[in-house]
Design goal:
Layout (H helix, E strand, L loop, with lengths): L2 E4 L8 H14 L4 E5 L5 H6 L8 E4 L7 H9 L4 E5 L6 H8 L3 E6 L3 H21 L5 E5 L9 H12 L13 H9 L14 H18 L2 E2 L5 E2 L3
Parallel strand pairs: 1-4, 1-5, 2-3, 2-4, 5-6
Antiparallel strand pairs: 7-8
Length: 231
Amino acid sequence: MPVITFANTKGGAGKTTAALLLATELARGGAHVTVLDADPQAWISSWAQTGSAPRNIDVISAVTAASIQGHLTAARRTSDYIIIDLPGARDTLLANALGCSDQVIIPIQGCAMDAKGGAQVLELLSRLEKSAGIRIPHAVLLTRVNSLVTTRALQMVKALLAERQVRVMDTPIIERAAFRDIFDCGGALTDMDALRVSNLDKALENARAFADEVRALLPYRNTRGMLRRAA
């Protein structure tokens, strides 16, 4: 079962939103997903406590550097995907999570501060490869992208990533009201009322495209041993 870690040493980069969107979309496709919530803000844990989370999503709260290995061992017995939502910090937990990952996703908004936070994660990944021979697949995910305007700052971020030969995921996360409201509403995007949430259809389309891209990268064996791949 793939372990997917969302990491950026800067807070507010969109890690938690992207992690929750991916978890709910993978679950909608039938996967059993475990989310390790290591973010002190515990937004995904709070979302799970609304009581309307999909039954095939388990959320483990208060994950620390000392406990993460034990949580991963337990989750591997039952989960098709494990998603780790990290805090915006450069610490032992970050290093431990990266070392256990099958894919690291680095959310970055179109601003210099996010880019610097993402660069710290990239530097740590490079160090792991050079010192320990551990090469962990990784990609940048552009988040909170304006659906109408490509800003100069976003263009600068893209240029910087291209210069460093960093892979950027094809599907950015667009700024949508539904992506903010899901934490208050609980459940998944499909549980929302299209009459009350603007552009819900566009939000669903964006989340599904993102999840499809991840599934194509990381097919999984479900708990009955059947290999599943993205359609």
